[in-house]
Specification:
Helix 1 packs antiparallel against helix 2, helix 1 packs parallel to helix 4 and helix 2 crosses helix 3. By secondary structure, this protein is an alpha/beta fold. The protein has one domain: Glycerol-3-phosphate (1)-acyltransferase (3-Layer(aba) Sandwich), CATH 3.40.1130. Strands 1, 2, 3, 4, 5, 6, 7 and 8 form an eight-stranded mixed β-sheet that branches. Helix 4 links the parallel strand 3 and strand 4.
Length: 249
């Protein structure tokens, strides 16, 4: 049964990714920014349905104006969960650009890639973030810098909080919790030496996979005066997410 479920979903997901690439190539030059954001949002929602993942949203996401969404990072699915709520430009490691199909897709959808080996990487990404904020768009950041199984939080790198602080946009923490058959699970986690194909197998063959997305209170209001330094904002965001992931600590 798992093999049959995986095969059917893989065919559907592959066709939908190819469809997404065609949408980017054939319509993005003509439909304007609002059309591209609409297409990205609803394409992502359909992808999650084809993957068999149920999405449970809690809290009040910022749906208008510039915002930095700061989230814990567990799986390659994370970007599509948030895109399904509001089209978002994510900051991602440049290696993702080389992934088959998915890499081409996220590149075409406006992902901001960071070359971690470059001395000027943070500065270049900051300029790109500022441009998105100027257009009142959402930017997504995974400040742990890598994925985790989802039961704990790694330290946050706060450098990329600074462009949001300078632009005086809202910063909203977001906690992602994965469940399988109703229990917290790391089944969808893309960690360690696991390959992308192995991760795709785990997700597409699973039954009863779901995610809770918790949109938490802002740690920085728009146009806030005397905003805390970026390190303090990083600690505030991490503490808010930890309170949901690790409620008994």
């Amino acid at each position: 049964m798992k093999v049959l479920r995986f095969t059917l979903r893989l065919v559907l997901v592959t066709c939908w990714i190819l469809c997404g690439l065609l949408i980017i190539a054939l319509t993005y030059p003509w439909i304007g920014l609002s059309g591209r954001l609409w297409a990205k949002k609803y394409w992502s929602k359909i992808l999650l349905g084809l993957c068999g993942v149920r999405v449970i949203q809690r809290g009040d996401p910022v749906l208008h104006g510039g915002v930095l969404w700061v989230a814990n990072h567990i799986s390659w699915l994370d970007i599509f969960f948030l895109n399904g709520v509001r089209a978002t430009a994510f900051i991602a490691k440049s290696e993702i650009r080389r992934w088959p199909l998915l890499g081409w897709l996220v590149a075409g959808a406006g992902t901001i890639f960071i070359e971690r080996a470059s001395r000027h990487a943070v500065h270049k990404v900051g300029i790109a973030m500022q441009a998105h904020f100027a257009r009142e768009q959402a930017v997504g950041l995974f400040p742990e810098g890598t994925t985790s199984p989802g039961f704990d939080l790694l330290p946050f790198y706060a450098n990329l909080f600074e462009p949001a602080r300078k632009a005086a946009v809202q910063i909203q923490p977001v906690a992602l919790l994965y469940f399988h058959q109703g229990r917290r699970s790391d089944l969808a986690a893309f960690v360690g030496e696991q390959t992308l194909l192995e991760s795709v197998w785990c997700i597409l063959s699973a039954n009863g996979l779901s995610v809770e997305i918790h949109f938490l209170p802002l740690v920085l209001q728009a146009r806030a005066e005397n905003a805390p330094p970026r390190a303090a904002l990083g600690h505030m965001a991490r503490d808010a997410i930890a309170a949901v992931l690790l409620p008994n600590t």
